[in-house]
Automatic annotation (TrEMBL):
Keyword Membrane set for record: yes
Official protein name in the record: MICOS complex subunit MIC13
Keyword list, A-Z: Membrane, Mitochondrion, Mitochondrion inner membrane, Transmembrane, Transmembrane helix
Mode of membrane association: Single-pass membrane protein
Domain of life: Eukaryota
Cellular compartment(s): Mitochondrion inner membrane
Amino acid sequence: MGLLRFAIKSSIAGGAIYYTVQEGLWGTPEESAKLYNKLYNNISPLVRQNVPKEVVEEIHRIPNPSDFKRCVVYHWNNGVTTSIKFLSELPEHVSNGIDKIQKEIEKSNLSSGKVFAGDGVDKKC
């Protein structure tokens, strides 16, 4: 029984993967855009015709392909800009972190009565 369930589940997963590959979901960006256009053109009219107006008004509309592309490009560029900004500020963040750690160590040593001398020997206050 377990082998049969595994075979059925594997067949469903394999079929889904095969279908999405054939439709172009895992292909080039152009193929993915064609698939999105196809889905948009097929699903949008069905939603408008078969779903009650109250429900349609409550749900968000499906973005058209140009809006979708513009949104993806904007967020991609924003992510790249943020990553580069973080990398450019990384030395400053590391320096601030080291300074804070050193202050905390000094504060901890002063409260315990130990002071580090320049030669590395602990001295009592």
